[in-house]
Amino acid sequence: MKTVRFGLIGCGLMGREFASAVARWCHLTNIDAHPELVAICDRFDRPPSDLELWFTNNFPSITQVTSDYKALLANPAVDAVYIAVPHNLHQEFYCAAIEAGKHLMGEKPFGIDKAANQAILAAVKRHPELLVRCSSEFPFFPPVQRMCDMIERKAFGRIIEVNCGFVHSSDLDPNKPINWKRQIEFNGEYGCMGDLGMHPCHVPFRAEWWPRNVRAILSKIISERPDGKGGMAACETWDNATLFCEVESAANGGAFPLTIKTQRIAPGEKNTWYVEILGTSASARFTTRNPRRLELLEYRGGEQTWQQIDMGQETAFKTITGGIFEFGFSDAILQMWAGFIYELTSGKRLKRFAGCVTPEETALSHELFTAALESHRRSQVVRVTAGT
After folding, report:
1. Phi–psi pair at 298, nearest 5 degrees
2. What is the reported pTM?
3. Which helix (H) or strand (E) holds 160?
4. Has domain 138-314+359-383 been given CATH number 3.40.1080.10?
5. What is the rounded CA–CA span in Å between residue 262 and residue 266?
6. Predicted confidence (pLDDT) per residue in 193-247, tens digit
7. Where in the chain are all domains bearing CATH 3.30.360.10?
8. Which residues neighbour 129 within 8 Å (Cβ) at sequence distance 6 or greater?
9. End-to-end alpha carbon distance in the chain
10. Cβ count within 10 A of residue 215
11. Which CATH superfamily is 2-134 part of?
């Protein structure tokens, strides 16, 4: 079995999720390669912090612990890196990793703004021998994989409408202290779109449902938050965004509406990703609020009836878990990383919708979000140039 030696830059929430996926790799049954965590980089305290000890105690394969990301990238024992850092660091860190000859999994939005994204894609173009991808795990839920198979088979008929979103309510509390995601310097002007938007864009973009224009409505709901020092700090970024897009698709026989929602203040929502596809022959919808349920309507004339199908471990990459058991977020993380490792070692995706977000798809998201900012400023529909 081939081993891919990983360095991790950014040991926070998603860094630990990656490490956990590495530890669970034996859970997969149909992949002939595995990742090994050999180096970590973060702003570790001295003496060793609890965070550093969590990694080193659980992963004896780690031979390098550093606070200097350049030192990790210079390590010849590292084949690939996962970089999970704030958006303002994406261009610097991602470009450095690519120029160092490391395969890269990065976090969305793949650059704090369009210019940063273009710089990263220029580095990717200079190194076609490297696999560079962006994290987005939600399409690996089994009901969504079933929906994606339907897209492949053209089972929906003519698409009538598509609705996607990623919404949560963690910022409804006005007393929640401010963090970097509320500051343009670190998060960027996109606000919630940059932080959340790649998730709802993943399936439409992979289906080549390119928005040709957008009318965006953006909201700043809470203007200031506690700064953690006894004072208050201004919240600079957008809390919520609703993007009304028009998709032109010759293959579909005409245009259809695509609505994308990204919301940090969605009352009652814990952490919800959803997708709904309505067509003339079939319609389907899924939400992580009920992670095993696919709602499906197949129309052949006569009554139109929604059916509910409860799915278990019907995954792209097979696992030891019995098919009747529930699928969850950590399972989606494992499936996403299986998609990355499979493509890295085989040179192809297992199937069209079982692969990670490409750099070109991140570029389209930047075109869309940049146009959305302009649309909101002008209160007008704005053309989206990429993908047309």
Report:
1. -110, 125
2. 0.96
3. strand 159-167
4. no
5. 9
6. 999 999 999 999 999 999 999 999 999 999 999 998 999 999 999 999 999 999 9
7. 138-314+359-383
8. none
9. 42
10. 18
11. NAD(P)-binding Rossmann-like Domain (3.40.50.720)
